[in-house]
Design brief:
Helix content is about 20%, strand content about 30%. By secondary structure, the protein is α+β, with helices and mostly antiparallel strands. The protein has one domain (about 10-214). Strands 1-7-8-9-4-3 form a six-stranded mixed β-sheet. Strands 2-6-10 form a three-stranded antiparallel β-sheet. Helix 2 packs across helix 5. The longest helix has 14 residues, at about 135-150.
Length: about 210
């Protein structure tokens, strides 16, 4: 596997022409969130505590090197629920439909967003490699913070899900909120334990070889 080097200076990144992706208003997006646990969030709420173990958290640590509550926020989503399940439950490969009250929300983007596209050759041009999608998470977070500082007009990143065949996934940063990307209500919102979506969850988990715990 290609190594993932340290991120270069912000000035070096700014000297490059970034690869951009337009996420158009009207795009349907899926998200798995948690109504319980240490950091519960609503379907349209960014997580401002971090960085956690999530790959592209761009948040700054406190002076002791610990995660903290801050203005920087992240919101992970994808076009397919299967990708969300593959990403969220990759550590255990078990979809626990009860722990921390997980839910699946599907919503229609209300505004155009500009994303830095990390799915192609730009990751090589900027000095990284495709290992940014699967290599050490702490190093990927350093890249996320550097890219956030270098390109202050982007609303997040498009990246490859290493757990779902490189399907495109998205991480939005708090700058996206200036464009009011969320509709008033989601198109779909169910807990993962809801009997009405048993078949959907089972099929998504089975497609990536995960187990389901009920």
């Amino acid at each position: 596997m290609a190594k993932l080097p340290l991120a270069p200076a912000v000035e070096r990144l700014r000297s490059l022409t970034p690869a951009m992706r337009r996420l158009a208003a009207g795009t349907r997006l899926a998200r798995i969130g948690f109504a319980g646990g240490d950091h519960p969030t609503r379907w349209n709420q960014f997580r401002h505590w971090g960085p956690t173990q999530s790959r592209f958290d761009h948040q700054a640590r406190d002076r002791h090197g610990r995660p903290q509550l801050q203005q920087r926020g992240v919101y992970y989503c994808a076009a397919a629920a299967q990708t969300c399940i593959a990403e969220v439950y990759q550590a255990t490969r078990v979809v626990d439909v009860l722990k921390h009250q997980p839910y699946l929300a599907v919503w229609t983007l209300a505004a155009d967003l500009r994303l830095l596209d990390l799915t192609g050759a730009f990751v090589t041009r900027m000095g990284a490699s495709t290992a940014i999608h699967s290599g050490p998470r702490a190093r990927a977070q350093e890249w996320a913070a550097a890219l956030y500082a270098a390109y202050d007009s982007v609303d997040g990143f498009a990246y490859c899900s290493s757990m779902n065949g490189n399907a495109v996934a998205y991480v939005l940063n708090e700058r996206a909120l200036r464009k009011q990307p969320f509709p008033r209500t989601p198109d779909f919102h169910r807990t993962l334990a809801d009997p009405l979506i048993v078949d959907l969850i089972d099929a998504a988990a089975d497609s990536v070889g995960y187990l389901v715990k009920r």
